[in-house]
Inverse folding.
DNA sequence: TTCTTTCACATACGTAGTGTATGTCAATTG
DNA sequence: CAATTGACATACACTACGTATGTGAAAGAA
């Protein structure tokens, strides 16, 4: 029955390495992060890293996946809390923007991630987030609220707007001051997907 | 009269290095691009590089600036050709999206640029582009066409949408097929900044 | 012109960091 | 209890950046 001891230990080291990776990548950036330092801080050596993740990029992928998946979950929750629908979509966007205030998200997911792992749209975690947005948009479209445009394209750009707003807020000096502006502008652009003026739309449940 | 010989030669080497940098950064990516290979292909050595640009990042900055400035110019021209105003703004966005089909733009400006040089909103070239968008938006706002939202925020996100659409098109397998979808979705979102439905707006000159 | 200085660039070197090949010891299996 | 697997450490090779130093041609002085 203790035949899981090995696997559990390995899972523990994976966690340690991912945690150390988050810290190092956030603080130094991907390129400047040293795998020697990183693994040493986790009480390990590079041997563990290359055994578990293949290479530096592999660890980055694991780290990005973890953060990004948490973001998607949080955003979705924010949307469902408010009851889904159009307001839910806006809430998802707002949540996404606010999360980007965290330096880890900013540096790892928004800046280094795309450069190291390629276009975010291809990441498994981002795809999950995108599928969520697509689902919400389809539901709205079936009610006739959305303009007759390719839904996937709309979802991608909508996510992109939130991501960009987030990046702007994050890189701004007065983050707390720009946050409301960014959110307002996001909602402003988002209303572009609607068939009618937003004032005319309340709740249709 | 030949007192410019020195400076001219230096300018020539700078051009050679930037050109070689464009090729190498686009093909290999910033991290994997070797300065030895790069400079050798330009008929020079790393000495020239470090003398002219300080370090690898310095060359990257010069390359990005060159490309990005050309993009801004081209986009602005596209907007002015159509006569400015609302249609001009859309034309700028379309131009931006189409330019991102070039691998150089995609890899250097959209992917590696932000990771190496930081948030694009801080780049001098991007600021120039942003100022243009802000100017156009202000003009539209003075005609009462724009919603009462912070113009800078709007401009940033609008540029961001175009940039994101571009990135999507670029990373798509069937670029020619996704391009129209991306443009349509961009225009869709862009109408969100308008006070009224876009159908009611033609030209107001 | 000729001597001196400057400077754009090349050459040589130190260092750091990644990835791989090999070693080792505990956990598993029979 | 012997044999084997495998997770991780150690050792090594290679690459590449940045710097310190050298060099030869252009620019200025006399």
């Amino acid at each position: 029955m203790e035949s899981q001891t090995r696997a559990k230990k390995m899972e523990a080291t994976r966690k340690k390495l991912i945690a150390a990776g988050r810290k190092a990548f956030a603080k130094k950036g991907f390129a400047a992060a040293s795998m020697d330092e990183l693994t040493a801080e986790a009480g390990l050596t590079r041997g563990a890293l290359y055994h578990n993740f293949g290479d530096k990029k592999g660890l980055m992928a694991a780290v990005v996946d973890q953060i990004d998946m948490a973001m998607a979950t949080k955003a979705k929750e924010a949307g469902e809390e408010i009851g889904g629908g159009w307001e839910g979509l806006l809430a998802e966007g707002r949540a996404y923007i606010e999360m980007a205030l965290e330096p880890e998200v900013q540096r790892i997911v928004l800046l280094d991630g795309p450069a190291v792992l390629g276009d975010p749209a291809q990441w498994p975690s981002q795809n999950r987030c995108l599928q969520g947005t697509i689902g919400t948009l389809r539901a709205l479209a079936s009610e006739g609220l959305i303009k007759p445009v390719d839904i996937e394209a709309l979802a991608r750009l909508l996510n992109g707007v939130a991501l960009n707003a987030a990046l702007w807020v994050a890189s701004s000096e007065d983050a707390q001051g720009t946050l409301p502006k960014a959110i307002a502008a996001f909602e402003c652009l988002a209303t572009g997907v609607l068939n009618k003026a937003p004032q005319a739309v309340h709740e249709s449940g």
